[in-house]
Structure formats: C-alpha cells, structure tokens
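Lay summary. Proteins are chains of building blocks that fold into shapes, and those shapes determine what they do. In this project we predict the shape from the chain. Here is one chain we studied, written as its sequence of building blocks.
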Amino acid sequence: MKRISIKDLAKKTGLSTTTISRVLNGKAKQYRISDNAAQLIISTAQKEGYRPDRNAISLRTNRSQTIGVIVPNIADYYFSSLSRMIEIAARKIGYSILLSDSQEILELEIESIESLISRKVDGLIVLPIGNEFSHLQNVIDIGIPLVIADRHFPLIECPQVFSDNFNGAFKATEFLIKKNHSRIACIQGRQNTSVNNERIRGYKDALKHHDIQFDPALIIGDEFGLRSGYVSAKILINMIPRPTAIFTFCNAISLGALRAIYEENLNIPNDISIISFDHDQPYSEFLKAPITSIDQQTSEMGQIAFKLLMAEISHKDAKNSNTSISSAKFVTLPTKLRKRQSVKSFRSEKNVAENNLQSQDLIKN
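And here is the predicted shape, written in a compact code that computers can read:
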C-alpha cells in the first residue's frame, strides 16, 4: 500500500502542507489555526491511516524518537512492570523504546549500552546490576543523556530515581520487632550494591534502635534470585535456635524461601514469619499465607525515569542552543508497608510463662 504523505492530506483537505504539519505536530493553537481546520486535518489523517515518517522527523530534529532501556532480568515481575511503565509513558509522546536484558551480567550490560548507542537512541535508562559504574560515566562523558533507575550512584552526575531502601528495611524489621520477634534473619541480594547496602543498614539500625544484638550469622544470601532464596532459607531454618522471622530482599528470594520452608513442612506464619521487600505481586493474595511486604512505587519510578530522561534530552538540546535549562537529579521514592498474613506475633516460652503468671495473679486477686 502507498504511504500517505502530508502532500496527500493537503490534496484531500484543501489546506497547505505547512498548516497540516503544524496541526500534526500539536502547534495548532500556537499558529492560531481554527478548530474546524485542525479537526478536519486530524480526522482525515486518521481515516487515511497517516503515519509520520520517522526518518524525516529524525533528520529534521536530529532525534531518533527512540530511547534505550536496560534491565537486569526482564523475567522478573518488578523489572518487567517498570519497563512497561516506561514504554507507556514513551508511547504517549510518540517515542519508542529498545529494551535490552543484561541477564545480571556486567559484560552484557556494557555490550547493551554500546549496541543501543550505535543505534542512535536519544538517551538511555539503565537499571544497573552491580556497583561498577565507569561504563555509565563513559555514557555521560560522550554526551548521551542518561538516567539511572532502581540503583543509586552518588559519584555519577546524572538523574537517578530509586526507592528509599533504608527506611523501607527499617520499617520491615521494626514491624517484626513489634510482633515480638528478636531473632530476625535476612536473605540479602547482590552484595555491595546501593540497594543491598541500604537495606542491610536499615535492618541493622532497626535492631540497634530496639536494643537487639546484631548476629552476623543471620544475614545470608548472595543474589536477588530464587536459588539464593531457597539455599539460604534451607540453612536458616535448620539453625539451632531457628530464626522466628525472615526478611527477604526481593520477591524472587521470597519464592525460593517459600519452597524451602514448605519442603521442611513448616507453616507460615505459625512456625516462621516472613516479610519481603519488593513490588506488590499479583500472586501474593493467592498464597496459603499472603506475604507481608514493603512495596516500591514501580509505576511511578518508570514514569519519573522517563520524564527525567526527556528533561535530559531537552537539556542537551538547550546546551547546544546556548539556552539555560535545569534538570532534576536524585529522586527518592518512599515505600509502603503492606500488612498481610505471613507475620504473626511471636510467643516464646518465656512469653507464655509470663502470661500464665499474670493470669494466675488475676485469678488470685
């Protein structure tokens, strides 16, 4: 089929190509084009199946109208949800995304960045896997707009959006403490990343705040994955004494831990409590004991990351035209405690004995 051009629309509407171009680019009011003319152009374009020529737009604006998005694991619901929100936000203003999965491998992350830059993307949103950032700094140094999401690198001068991991972990641990748990284990993710470090710090600070001695043996795990959750939970639940609660650092870890717990014929929360830090999963409410969680604002993170990138792209254009424009830098998103049935108040033998004594005193009085 022949591609419909602006010239074809001009013939069908009787209006100039300039007027049609201005309307299709959203500049009708700026050039005082009547509502009737604008509506005629839009309806005719829709009827004829007009699609803008991206190559022509790219040549005119020096933009490809595409951005690159790199995530650690597209199969993970958290990362796929975040990517989806970026795409929805991009599509609304005529942008497309090129999505790449680094598979939790630094070399693939670097390779993905180089590949996307070679495709002339207007900018990049990267969810890095580790604590190495020299390749990210290189992106900035060559003038490619960059936004980092999910992780935080204080030494990199580019916009970054991430969850308040410290306060989220503090809330999770304190919630367990207020349920009378003191032997609280945590299954961490990839060590020495900003996400993991902040969650460990929140966990430790909550223990310290409530005068509970920190036991290094209760921190276990080495990655944000099912395998780590399963292996770590197996070790924890066979400890003597066994932890009364487990704080997992993501949903994938939680699923692995659940498998281990059920294999040991333990009941959640009667035998052991569990709380997770991650995005609210659709399957959570269908578990035997829906998991209490610290929810991240995944949708908002995706939308903000895209808006920050658009600001960086505009900032780049403004610098090229010697126009002053400011762009936001670090954006921290609060988390929310979602209480479900996977945590119960812990009653130790000491608690039971104290309660029995109180009951006997009441009877005597």
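What the prediction tells us: The chain is about 45% helix and 15% strand.
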